Amino acid sequence: MRGCSSQAVMITCALVGAELTRQQAPYLPLTPQEIAESARDAVAAGATILHLHVRDLQGRPTCDEVVFSEVMAQIRSHCHAILQVSTGGALGDEPEDRFRPLKTFPEMASLTMGSINFAQGVFTNPMPLVKKLAQEMRARSIKPEIEIFDVSMLETALYFAQQSWLSWPLHLNFVLGVPGALSASEENLNFLISKVPRDCSWSVTAIGRWQFPMLRFALMKGGHIRVGMEDNLYLEKGVMAQSNAQLVEKAVSMAQALGRPIAGLSQAREILHLGTPGYNAEALHP
Ligand code: KMH
Ligand code: ZN
User: Fold this and answer.
1) Which side of the chain, N or C, has fewer Cβ within a 10 Å radius?
2) Among 80, 76, 68, which Cα is nearest to 109's?
């Protein structure tokens, strides 16, 4: 479903990410309990998908499946949502570590289709690694969210689908505004949308001050949206969000003002074809 401007919108919340510290983001949830409580509040505010990174006891990003499992169990004890683990990890993670979150059998996982400069660092995703991650997701019935930071990544995703390395239909997430990758503009997003195959779903993530203006545009175009402290800390200029839930609430108001109902969990699973043969079902995590 390429997107229609009255379709229910799925809201993803990216709760913590891998880059920010408490010094930069005083309200960032870090411990399993903080992440789970932040998840609960974000879901109560209207999020249906949770994009997950986790941190170790020192607050540093980790791919450790034990920590992921603990966070996911705590989240599930508080609320129901589609859990999407990150295989992007943090810049500089060892390739083999990026498979570790998949051992937790989540419903979804992120999959970035190529390498980019990422602010002052490099986000390294060579083709053989992406292919192996895709195969591992398929073997474990995990639905990938295809992360598109630049135009060539969309072309790579379509090539992967053609080769049957990715199952159809794809769920694409356009990540705009990372310094070094595709900038956040309506023109760029329009171009990307024009390339989305008819059956595929798509969402938008935009970094920093671009978050809400780009999400508004995505909502008008019939797309799904992602908010959260991984991407942006501010509700508006000079006003820092004190929780992920506040960012979700702002997204919900924006969607409702534009006539987009908020997708519930079963609607989101339908849009994403979760629970159909080949994908993990909710029943796995009653
Ligand atoms: N932390 C970034 C380097 C993902 O989660 O898949 C990559 C990232 C993408 O956050
Ligand atoms: Zn991420």
Assistant:
1) C
2) 68
d(CA 260, CA 253): 10
Percent of residues in the chain assigned helix, strand, coil, to nearest 5: 40, 20, 40
Find all residues with CB under 8 Å of 276, minimum gap 6, and list them.
Answer: none
Which of ligand 1's atoms lies nearest the C-alpha of 123?
A: 3
Those residues whose C-beta lies under 8 Å from the C-beta of residue 11, and which sit 6 or more positions away, are 46, 47, 48, 49, 224, 225, 226, 227, 248, 251, 252, 255, 262, 263
Percent of the chain with pLDDT over 70: 95
Could you tell me the end-to-end alpha-carbon distance of the chain, in angstroms, rounded to an integer? 28
CA-closest candidate to residue 86, choices 137, 36, 126, 52: 52
**Residues with C-beta less than 6 Å from any ligand 1 atom:** 17-19, 86-88, 90-91, 110, 112, 118, 123, 147
286 pLDDT higher than 90: no
Task: Give the span between the Cα atoms of 259 and 213, in whole angstroms.
Answer: 17
Joined tokens for residue 195: 């390339």
pLDDT (average), residues 111-116 = 98
Supply the pLDDT for residue 285: 46
